[in-house]
Design a protein that fits this description.
By secondary structure, the protein is an alpha/beta fold. The protein has 6 helices and 14 strands. The strands form 3 sheets. A 7-stranded mixed sheet has the order 1-7-8-9-10-12-11, covered by helices on one side. Strands 6-5-2-13-14 form a 5-stranded mixed sheet, with helices on one face. It comes from Alkalimarinus alittae.
């Protein structure tokens, strides 16, 4: 547990937004792993260039999203330059953009760069939907942990508005994905999270990053969704670290007023990209 987060949370400010239509269009991007250097790479791939390619694809396919959520590992090195770069690249969207941390991020640096731009809102209500964004970063560790403060925030938000369909998002995966090395570095206190989810009938989906691959499953009526990284992809069902040959991508979600979710993944197959397939880690 992060000792700094043990105190009971203050009353959470709620961001209220107006949807553009009855169905909300949400774009998820995740794990860009930007570095301070313009030519910064991850496993041989220039992560700024790959992010540009994915964002170009988003704007081509989905011109008017209601929100963009960025589900962690925005920076590989936790540098202010990486977060400023990310902020600038996402500034072209005419909608709110929400961020939170992954295990490679620096929480304080991210806060310093985001400032008061609204990117770090924790609870957002839009039309018939509520979004709860959680911080699963455990300083100094690759695996994830949700502090008591984060879990209480989630329980409170779900309790306060049982009439709203809810989408809960964080970085680390809360279920095993049949990938041995990744399952060892998922969300360690997943049982605490899932017990809260199970108590609230208004949760429609859990959305995360971290695993650099696509997941679309259902657990007790709740949609479980993970998405491609905007850079390198990891090979599904692998025993040890392995890189996939699929292109960078993003997920779109159409959230309907009745609580149903339509979703899909798009990949930047139109670009050429270099990846070091021989790497044993990153």
């Amino acid at each position: 547990m992060n000792i700094a987060d043990e105190d009971h949370p203050k009353k959470q400010k709620i961001a209220e937004c107006s949807p553009s239509d009855d169905a909300l269009l949400i774009i998820q991007i995740t794990d860009p792993h930007l570095r301070k250097e313009e030519d910064g790479k991850l496993l041989g791939m220039n992560t700024r260039s790959s992010l540009d390619a994915v964002l170009q694809l988003v704007k081509q396919n989905h011109t008017t999203p209601d929100a963009v959520i960025a589900t962690g590992d925005l920076a590989q090195d936790g540098s202010s330059e990486a977060y400023r770069c990310f902020e600038e690249k996402l500034s072209g969207f005419d909608c709110p953009v929400y961020w939170f941390t992954g295990n490679h991020d620096n929480r304080e640096t991210m806060k310093d760069v985001a400032g008061t731009n609204g990117a770090l809102e924790k609870v957002v209500r839009m039309g018939e939907w509520q979004f709860v964004f959680l911080d699963s970063l455990l300083d100094g560790e690759v695996h994830g942990h949700l502090s008591d403060t984060e879990l209480q925030l989630l329980d409170d938000a779900l309790s306060e508005r049982p009439d709203l369909h809810s989408l809960v998002s964080f970085h680390h995966h809360p279920v095993d994905i049949d990938c041995k090395w990744l399952d060892a570095i998922g969300l360690k206190n997943r049982d605490q999270l899932l017990s809260i989810i199970d108590r609230h009938a208004n949760v429609r989906g859990l959305v995360w990053g971290h695993i650099h691959q696509e997941i679309d499953a259902v657990r007790k009526g709740v949609r479980l969704l993970a998405s491609p990284s905007t850079c390198v992809q990891f090979l599904p069902k692998s025993e040890s670290f392995a890189v996939d040959n699929l292109a960078p991508g993003y997920r779109w979600l159409q959230l309907k007023a009745d609580g149903s979710i339509n979703t899909g993944v798009e990949r930047a197959d139109h670009i050429e990209f270099l990846v070091d397939y021989t790497s044993k880690g990153y």
